[in-house]
């Protein structure tokens, strides 16, 4: 699974390393707070779950929309 981190196509798909890292951190926090994994855990860590969910396209980065209207 860590092999997926060596492929830059995932990073580019998300929109860069900052967004990729932010998405991983956000998802790990959700998992630690009790969110259900979107894939089978199979003994994987929260980090491994978060990365695999991103690789499989089950979660994506969405920027907060700040309208000044």
Q: SSE order, as H and E?
A: HHH
N-to-C span: 44 Å
Strand content of the residues, in percent?
under 5%
Compute the gyration radius: what is it? 13 Å
Largest β sheet strand count, sense and barrel closure: none
Helix content percent band: 40-55%
Instruction: Tally the beta strands.
Output: 0
State the shape: globular
**Count of DSSP H/I helices:** 3
| Overall pLDDT level | 87
> Could you list the spans in which at least 5 consecutive residues all have pLDDT below 50?
none
Number of domains: 1
Which structural class should the secondary elements be placed in?
Answer: mainly alpha
Ordered list of secondary-structure elements with their pairings:
Blueprint: H1 8-14, H2 17-32, H3 46-55
Helix pairs in contact: 2-3
Please explain how this structure is put together:
It contains 3 helices and no strands. The chain has 69 residues and is an all-alpha fold. The protein has one domain. Helix 2 packs across helix 3. The radius of gyration is 13 Å and the shape is globular. The model has no long low-confidence stretch (mean pLDDT 87).
Core attributes:
69 residues, mainly alpha
Give a nutshell description of this structure:
By secondary structure, the protein is mainly α. It contains 3 helices and no strands.
């Amino acid at each position: 699974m860590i092999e997926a981190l060596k492929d830059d196509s995932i990073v580019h798909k998300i929109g860069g390393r900052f967004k990729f890292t932010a998405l991983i951190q956000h998802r790990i926090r959700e998992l630690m707070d009790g969110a259900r994994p979107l894939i089978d855990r199979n003994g994987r860590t929260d980090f491994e779950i978060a990365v695999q969910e991103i690789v499989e396209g089950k979660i994506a980065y969405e920027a907060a929309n700040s309208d000044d209207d």
